[in-house]
Amino acid sequence: MKILVADKLSQVGLDYLKAQNVDFDIKTGLSAEDLAKTIGQYDGIIIRSGAKLTAEVLANPGRLRAVARAGVGVDNVDLPTATSRGIIVMNTPGGNTLSTAELAVTLMMALSRKVVPAAVSLRAGKWDRKSYEGTQLSGKTLGVIGLGRIGRTVAGIAMAMGMKVVGYDPMLTAAAVPEAVEFVADVDELYKVADYITVHVPKTDATKGMIAAAQLAMMKPSVRLINAARGGIIDEKALLAALEAGTVAGAALDVYTEEPPASEHLRKLIEHPNVVAVPHLGASTEEAQEGVALEAAEIMVEALRGGEIRNAVNVSGATKLPESLRPYAELLSRMGTLLTNITPGAIRKVEVVYRGEIAQQNMSAVTTALTIGLLKPVLGDELNLVNAPVLAKERGINIETITSEQVRDFANLVQVEVTTDKVSRTAVGAIFGHKFPRVVAIDGHRMEMIPEGDVVICFNDDQPGVIGKVGDAFGEAGVNIASMTFGRRKATNKAVLALNVDTQPPASVLEKLKAMPFMNEVYAVRLETLPEQQRKNG
Predict the structure, then answer these.
(1) d(CA 77, CA 57)
(2) Most buried in the list 33, 208, 316, 525, measured by CB within 10 Å?
(3) 526 tagged catalytic
(4) What is residue 538's predicted lDDT score, i.e. its pLDDT?
(5) The domain 97-277: what is its CATH number?
(6) What pTM was computed for the model?
(7) CATH superfamily of 2-94+287-313
(8) Active-site residue flag, 434
(9) Which of 259, 405, 476, 532 is catalytic?
(10) Share of the chain above pLDDT 90, in %
(11) Which of 69, 85, 152, 230 is catalytic?
(12) Is position 259 annotated as part of the catalytic site?
């Protein structure tokens, strides 16, 4: 066993590797070209956020079997390529929880009491107390967006300081929220009442720019925003405009869309007198660095020695599934993400039915893959094969599995019904040719959809001209339709149109579709690219 440490790692992680008699090399700062030439000599690689394991770097992985990320985010790893090469990708999601929560609270306090400008003034030789009068936190309302581990920790600290906490999490119902937190099902309600707002959600298609000009306009002019999660959740240009207009009182930032920030608008934002900005310090405590380094070393050694695979973020590449079931893990993961995106409301119950020959096999890991897919649009990189069932349970989501050997038309089928506090929606999936995942029905409308890339799902009335008008809308916007499948039910005069498109459709196209008189619902969903061997049928 030989391991490459490609980013700076705390000494405690290196000491663990030594204690385990593991042969390892430390080579940090490698270029993409050098990294591509090097990784094939190692069984495992430990990284932080510096090393970029792109598709090109992973193209010829040699003996590489595992990647361990000392930290949460794995956006510097091309997961589809790693999966297609059979490389396990693991992370350490728990190590930064307390340090990030503490920083968010610290930023809120520093912003509230004008600590940074007061310290700068004193360092310059001034004794100016009047210019730095702040506001106290006790008695104020804190809005917490995202009630996972970090969000709940922040909420607990805030309540201990006498703050009222209003919480929002799209994956939660009120029953799954800590009792002292006032839960709102509509985030707009939080925007209207909060004195402080802190975000603790991953950056996904659903959360990117979730606080933009329209949302800022709903807030009190005295509001102060904190982002210690991911850059881009708050629209930085819109935030700067609101600060300059005086419609937002202040902001405290640890993360940015560019790191280090270089764009003119980011420099202006950082230099604004009502902004406290620090250089991504969320995990920058001795304890957090040691914790993630040790865990990364432990999970790497255990995986390479054939033990338990912990914290794996790529499903089929990381599970000890029979080869015949790996396509089902890919299928179910994507069906979960699809259903979360096209089913309004907070998920309460999920029913999975395995039909046919697969009903005789142990499908628990495949069900976990579904769970990851369901939660991923909101929780992102925080998820892995170990914590997904726990996080689902924390959010009050009951997942029930049913098996039946009875099936028609297919050798095997998987049916998933998602019930939220508003509606129920069902999708059915199958594997074609033993390895090609397909969605073959949505709400009883039969189809054949490839679950990857940018997908648009339209629920519409079944009438002449629908396909032509939808196609024209995409054509006028310059969005190419790669494939289209249409499912209809004559008894209801309803239909579902599913389109795979080459590029993410602009919001203007989606709004145009929604305005069509025959259209009932329209959803744009971005799914992960399938591994190369599962992309084409025949």
Answers:
(1) 10
(2) 316
(3) no
(4) 43
(5) 3.40.50.720
(6) 0.77
(7) NAD(P)-binding Rossmann-like Domain (3.40.50.720)
(8) no
(9) 259
(10) 74
(11) 230
(12) yes
